[in-house]
Design brief:
The structure holds three protein chains of three kinds. Chain A is mostly helical. Helices cover about 65% and strands about 0% of the residues of chain A. A two-stranded antiparallel ribbon of chain A has the order 1-2. In chain A, helix 4 runs antiparallel to helix 6. The termini of chain A are far apart. The model of chain A has no long low-confidence stretch (mean pLDDT about 80). By secondary structure, chain B is mainly alpha-helical. Chain C has six helices and no strands. Chain C has two domains: about 80 residues, Four Helix Bundle (Hemerythrin (Met), subunit A); about 45 residues, no CATH class. Classes of the chains: A mainly alpha, B mainly alpha, C mainly alpha.
């Protein structure tokens, strides 16, 4: 029996790791909704949620409970199978990227070396890019299955926006690849832990990547698919109950994950700034600290996303396309050219 | 990995090819015909990778063919969709049997 | 049966099942979604064969690009809830027969030739692919690479020209 010839400890270890990371993502996304409302309140000089628990900390739980208790409506005119599939795909694609992110260094515990990364596949960054490009399906399927013209318009907007902004994102990644010379995310982080953060080499690339991440997450100023004054409510207009919750939740998970991806690619990953981790030797808590450092970096990005949302108004649709195709793509190409010249010259 | 005979993977790609052929024969909607062509191209890609991996493992030519086919498939899909949209504008239908001006 | 074998047969069943559904369902959007699943299955097959690079390219280009384009054109040209007409019975029978005969012929050919595994490890890496792709030497693929890039440019310009709405002549 070959089935039994698997390293069972590896299987258990990975299973625990997957559970842990998914839980972390979900809890962070849950409290990101609370954070969003608090940030909005601070920026608009209000108090924000403060009734449920201390500082309104139980508000996300109450919101979740409310979404569960609501009546679940599947419109008669909708396509039922696709209507249910849409939110599921949105959620899965949001969570899948977390599989290749190195969440921390190697922990030496119970006599085993446990890498805090679910899968260090040798095409890591391509995998991230592939999953990002699949994120558009949640919106498209949901918009079509609702059989509502507003949803359909929103889906068309969302799809064209995501395709347009994938392009400069890919170009920015290519120039980053030239600097690093590898496609493994583990190598990315190792180089940054031992050297300088990539943002120093690629400030323009990071800037482009950041704008594209905003657009891919459908955040303001790029939240055209959800422009409520033009489209009622956007692509998830016909959804109710937990299916709507899935869509809203997937957005926050996307935000958090893209923050973590940006930290991994440009801001040193789990590197603790100004500290030489190797000097502490082989102790288990340094892994935990590294994990916390990555979380902190990701959360800073989430905060910046929220800050932008409550400060900058929404683009018009033609302005959005202009920015994507006429400004970001040439800028990314220029960045690529300069990077290539510098890399060649230094070799 | 070697427990699966190479022929079994080839059977899968052959079956995929003929499923695509069936779609191409029966469908008359341009978009679905395009989908059938995508399936056919995919089965060819599988074949290239399999031959490269199992029969000529010291070379990489099969992988290059696959990459080029994928690239050309992307270009082909883009052109096809431009044509489809143009056809829809002039005929309000993308059924290939409705576009008969050039037939007689 | 080992785990690897079971996974292979599951993936194949998934690819073929989704492919058949994509080619037989009469709702066009559903057809596109089944095609999407089938292509993801093909990417899974590449992962199973441990050519992760091709798998990633497959997902980025096919799943993230081509199927999105197809769905986009469905959005622009079709109505939700409308079914496509059934193919005429005669054509259907003829198509099934032709396909079955073709499959049988190829099946026999493959069976007769009986390709066997060379048993050597397949050694690829992204570095190797990149170096050979841009090599101008004997084994290099620099010329096809350039030709494909020109082809892509031509396709891009051609698409814009075809789909561009001509400006109205008079004011």
């Amino acid at each position: 029996m070959h089935l039994l010839a698997i390293d069972w400890f590896l299987l258990i270890e990975k299973a625990i790791l997957i559970l842990l990371i998914v839980t972390v993502c979900l809890v962070t996304a849950m409290y990101a909704t609370w954070g969003e409302r608090k940030v909005a309140a601070i920026i608009q000089d209000r108090r924000g949620p403060n009734r449920a628990g201390p500082f309104g900390l139980f508000q996300p739980l109450a919101d979740g409970l409310k979404l569960f208790m609501k009546e679940e409506i599947i419109p008669n005119a909708s396509v039922k199978f696709l209507f249910v599939l849409g939110p599921g795909i949105a959620m899965v694609t949001a969570l899948m990227t977390s599989a290749v992110i190195p969440w921390g260094g190697t922990i030496h515990i119970f006599g085993r070396d446990i890498a805090l990364q679910i899968a260090d596949i040798n095409v890591g960054i391509l995998f991230v890019f592939a999953i990002v490009s699949m994120g558009v399906y949640g919106i498209m399927i949901g918009g079509w299955a609702s059989n509502n013209k507003f949803s359909l318009l929103a889906a068309i907007r969302g799809a064209s926006q995501m395709i347009s902004y994938e392009l400069p994102m890919g170009l920015a990644l290519i120039s980053l690849l030239m600097v690093t010379g590898s496609v493994r995310l583990g190598v990315f982080v190792d180089q940054q832990v031992n050297g300088v953060w990539n943002v120093v080499y690629q400030p323009l690339g990071f800037f482009i990547f950041f704008i594209c991440a905003l657009a891919e997450c459908n955040r303001t100023p790029f939240d055209l698919p959800e422009a409520e004054n033009e489209l009622n409510f956007g692509y998830h207009q016909e959804y109710s109950s937990m299916k709507l919750g899935f869509y809203l939740f997937a957005e926050y998970i996307n935000m958090f994950i893209s923050g973590v991806v940006m930290s991994t690619l440009y801001f040193g990953g789990y590197d603790i700034p100004f500290v030489n981790e190797a000097a502490f030797g082989d102790v288990w808590w340094i892994g935990a600290l590294e994990f916390l450092a990555l979380m902190a970096k990701g959360l800073i990005f989430v905060f910046i996303f929220m800050w932008i949302r409550w400060t900058i108004p929404r683009f018009r649709y033609d302005q959005l396309m202009d920015l994507g195709w006429k400004k970001l793509v040439p800028l990314a190409l220029l960045n690529m050219l300069i990077t290539a010249v510098v890399v060649l010259w230094r070799n | 990995m070697s427990e699966i005979p190479v022929t079994h993977i080839l059977f899968v790609s052959t079956a995929l090819f003929f499923i695509g052929m069936y779609g191409l024969f029966t469908r008359r909607n341009m978009i679905t015909m395009l989908m059938a062509i995508e399936l056919i191209l995919n089965s060819v890609n599988i074949n290239f990778v399999v031959f490269n991996k199992y029969l000529y493992p010291e070379k990489l030519d099969g992988l290059f063919f696959t990459i080029f086919i994928i690239t050309i498939a992307a270009a082909e899909a883009a052109v096809a969709i431009a044509i489809i949209i143009n056809l829809y504008r002039s005929h309000h239908s993308i059924d290939v049997e409705d576009a008969t001006e050039m037939k007689y | 049966m080992s785990a690897s074998q079971i996974i292979f047969y599951l993936i194949s069943a998934f690819i073929l099942g989704c492919g058949i559904l994509a080619m037989t369902t009469r709702k066009i959007f559903r057809s596109a979604i089944w095609l999407l699943f089938s292509l993801v299955g093909v990417a899974a097959l590449y992962f199973w064969m441990q050519v992760e690079f091709i798998a990633a390219v497959q997902i980025v280009v096919y799943v993230g690009g081509i199927v999105v384009l197809i769905i986009f054109s469905i959005f622009l040209t079709q109505q939700s809830g409308k079914e496509m007409p059934k193919p005429p019975l005669g054509r259907n029978i003829a198509a099934v027969l032709a396909v079955l005969f073709g499959f049988a012929l190829t099946f026999l050919l493959i069976n007769k030739y009986g390709f066997t595994d060379q048993g050597k490890a397949f050694d690829w890496s992204v570095n190797k692919i990149g170096t050979q792709m841009l090599n101008t030497g004997e084994q290099g693929f620099a010329l096809p690479f350039e030709v494909v890039s020109i082809l892509l440019l031509a396709a891009m310009v051609g698409c814009i020209v075809i789909a561009m709405r001509s400006k109205p002549e008079e004011k």
